[in-house]
Amino acid sequence: MPWTLPEPMLTEAVRSPALPASSAAEPKWDGFRAALSVDDGQVVLRSRRGTQMAPAFPEVVASAAQLPDATALDGELIVWDAAGRLAFEQLQNRLHRRGPAALQAAAQQPAHFVAFDVLRLAGTTTLTWPYSRRRAALEELFREHQLTAPWALCPSTTDPHTVHEWLTSWTTAGIEGVVFKRLDSPYRPSVKGWLKYKVRETTEAIVGAFTGPATAPRTLLLGRYDTAGHFQYTGRTTTLPQTAGRTVAGLLTTDTGPGPRGHGVPAASYAARMSDQRMNAPVAGGVGDAAWAGVPAPGGQRTGRSAGASVLATLWVLLVAWGIAAGNTGLAYVTLGMDFIPIAAGVLGCLVLVIVLRLLHRAWWLAVLSVVPALFILVGSVQYAPEAALDRRGVRETVTITADSAAGTASKNHRFTLVGPGGELDETLEYRGSNPGYRVGDRIEILRDPEGAVPLEDAVDVDPEGRLGGLVTGVAAWTGMTLLAGWRGHVRRRENRRAWSGTI
Question: Which residues of 400-434 are buried (b: 16+ CB within 10 A; e: fewer)?
Answer without folding.
Answer: ebeebebeeeeeeebebbbeeeeeebeebbebeee
